[in-house]
């Protein structure tokens, strides 16, 4: 299966992207091929609703491109789900929001969950995903680990330590039963954290891949009554 | 009070815009001055989530411009509220979404309401406003009058007739207690329709102006904990 | 615009009432004229549901009187909103509940809010307003400053100090994003507190005036399907 | 057990009241003694929120009188529950709202229910009971039988016929699973209607008596944190 | 009235059961006769969803037996309400779940409640009762007293002490207004605890008896549209 | 991956089961191996809460057996999800409820959905799944096709015709945006129906398989705080 991975931000080097794709591959089907579609313009990272808006046009354009190229589905590499609903209107293949995918699994695995992220003050787009999807009814808190993305990348052990500590606070203070990553820089740390704390930690990016594979296998796509095709479109968004 | 009116679509001629400003003036304070900020790029009209996304960048840029120009608040002329939440992060003046403003008044005036629009199949952005704001809990239906915007503009009497007929269906079939316009092409017809059907019909554009005037008078703005300033921004969005 | 201010309690001297009207005038339109309608019987203050009931008959009578006198709208000077819904059935002018008006703005300005009041143990009527209006879905807490109304009146600086302290607790412990006054003795302190804490503090009495002015300007009133005219009425409540 | 029945309206003759007490006795414990407390002033009937307000002062006064007289509990003979929450603040005995009592049983017996009443346009107070108690989440509709109270009293067979017809419509059109009376003029017809339609029909007045008996037997009363004693009271409301 | 008490667990000796029936009798009508129906197989106690499932078949069988024997209603002696909904499908008499009965009263008596139990980690079945019945909307917390059932039985004074302490924590930390027992080993301690803490403590087992008596008196049973008779049944479950 | 398929009913011949496994295989991963675990006792089919209870003990026993045999996950072949929550307490492998799995996908793919089943009067267990999981918030209706399972099996074309007709009614009358099968006799007809009506039709059994494969791949299991291991168990349920 050809699966598009849309990178809606500019601040990721080719190497970083390749590293992330390697992480995705670990949990993907052997037959899944990943194709990178990176934004040409937009924000460096998505840390606000402004960034989400600035990233959205390219998500739409790249979704169209992915469908034209024959991809079976697309996932958007950002837990704030920029323009995912708009892209679903445009194309006939499933466009998966990483944030919503992670919450869907967390919602399912426990009576409630806590969203773990880098900095909880930059999590407005995750809050919006929770509200729009309705899955936020089971979200008891959003907690950040207050670690820079740099630090996080270079010192995985420290990051894991901090995640475990924050998760335990969430259990004690918020009564959390499960966790979901609201920041894709945490991708790949779910299993290790699960082992540490003995509770499910949902790695949103893996969920997005899994959900895409499932929908494609089953021939399912988003409802055209919920995501109707727009009546008029600029040329670059036509299929 | 200097009030920015952001027109996030291209398909409105200067004359049409002037006519709309005249409508706004009718219910505005005598001291309110309207300043037009029209998009330079984006969709002709907003009929889908794609259009909403395509319109959003300019809403952010124009909100910044309005603040720089000394406007006390900005209203966005579209009931789908494109990038209104992003703009609230950017600027310190209130940015009012016309759709949410109308629903806020409709929510307040009755136990429930029906949203009236041109074509209910193009109302996904209004549906999203209802969900995100939580005001949709009192929305019993979305009903369209199936009349082209052209027809609507040239034949107000026929439009009013059709609105009254659809509103009465909403009363009978959905148990509606009040109405709100989900399409700004209907602006200015609220009072006449109210008279016809004897129930409140909320003219969303007037509500947006009124809400802006109220917030400015009271020195209120949106919460910076809900709409935190983005940590990084492109140059054209800095104040 | 002639605006009735219904004072549903007996314990306010003419001087105190005049002082409050002065506060209202600060945020009102220059053309708004306030007319005082004070209860002839009822409770000294409204600190319980009993007081709310005891105050209600006069609110109905005075609403009728206000309409007969040609007032364009009435606001009820108490955040517990005594008999406001009953008065809406009686008269054709909008009758605004101060409590609901404040919550409407607080609901709109932030993802959630905390209600600040004198004594949280006397806030049952505010709790009821939150439940009945549905706006309580975003109310994260009710917090009192435990200061007598006397003290509060004579030592504004101390009151402000205490409010800031309690508000900061609400931010820290309840995650509050905005505030609303649930006690009108706090009227006029919203802006100063906003400045202190950097988050919106909604001054409910000002909101009630603003909402009344908005509805009158737009020709809107409460739905007659939600607030149907009573079939039979005592003589003193007929218009 | 001495049980107060507070009649909050004037339009019931002694004979009518006696007839109703006979109906109550049929489902009450043999040891329950009913004591009538009738309003001295207030509305003839309760058909609006105005009527509810006008009836409330006497409900408070009579609740106090009932406690002073040694009654173990009081029920208020009106499904709009006038001043029931205020009375709970005043006295230490349970004060039962007939409307809420009926809904509590209907909520419990089925997945949803329809409220049957004389005229659905006079049911605003029942709607309020549903909202305030939260029990309205299972209320699928309010349906009236459009029969005058006179007719209803003199022609029980016709009333039953009409109730059965309206209930069947509610099953077919609203998917109703159970019924509750929202008008006490229907008291005593629950069992016959249950037999006719084969679904539970909750007779609210009987539920109020049963609930009162249960609370008294178990030594339970309403929470003093929800219904705190008012700090100040007029003399006639002191115990 | 003949009332079946179904004991769905094996670990209660005849003496223990007799002691519990004595407790029930204290709050029951003098004319109520209790008939014990004890499981022949199933779990010792119900501390998990597994136990609830293992206990369920016997609850169904014994409900049928109770109806055949002429009982007017049955109550199931376990706050986890094993197979209560299934039993309601089977028989025409009301089958009362002790857990739901207690929550119904707690819901009614206060704006919110805390569930008190032996060990909150064994309260999953109570959590399920709260979700399924919808009554959990007012449940602010589940708190355990961490005392073995043995200890609890032999040292009532210590149990009461611990309950009071935990309840006060719930008031302070969760804002609880009332309490309900989620473990029937606490039966009979409600009144003493109520006295200690001055807030209603609902003794679920007494509520179940009271509710059964009320339904029988009023001729009410569960809706056959919510609990339809199963089309096919094994022989031992036929009436 | 070794995947257990638990058949909790007796009325399926080996041939029928083999046919169903073939259907599952069509959408499963090539590496997935299905292992049948059929109940030795219990109901023929699951058409009521009684049947669900009667089927549950075997679901628990067979889940244990599946784990002992080294299966990576188990799915329960019934959309009423018998004892799925109990089984999750028992074993460490994921136990998937087919009903909840289907609803999870339907919830995700559209703003709302209609549940399609054989006979809507036998769908109480599906209703319970919707309530317990919270996914029912987006369920607008349950509609049956009123066709015997026999007929359904032998005349797929007629069944498809009937499904399309009922689905179109759901679109028109309930505003449905997507569909989910609430009866596994419909398995395998989702894609054909999707083609007919142009809206997503979620085939619950395929979703259960997909979800199981996803969880196993990602190393995720249900939260042990939501599904705590029971403290005591009968011998046959120990691992």
TrEMBL record, chains A, B, C, D, E, F:
Domain of life: Bacteria
Pfam name, any one: Asp_Glu_race
Alphabetized InterPro entries for the sequence: Asp/Glu/hydantoin_racemase (IPR015942), Hydantoin_racemase-like (IPR052186), Iso_Racemase_Enz_sf (IPR053714)
Signal peptide: none
GO molecular function: amino-acid racemase activity
Family designation: Belongs to the HyuE racemase family.
Listed name of the protein: Putative Asp/Glu racemase
Organism: Pusillibacter faecalis
Lineage: Bacteria, Bacillati, Bacillota, Clostridia, Eubacteriales
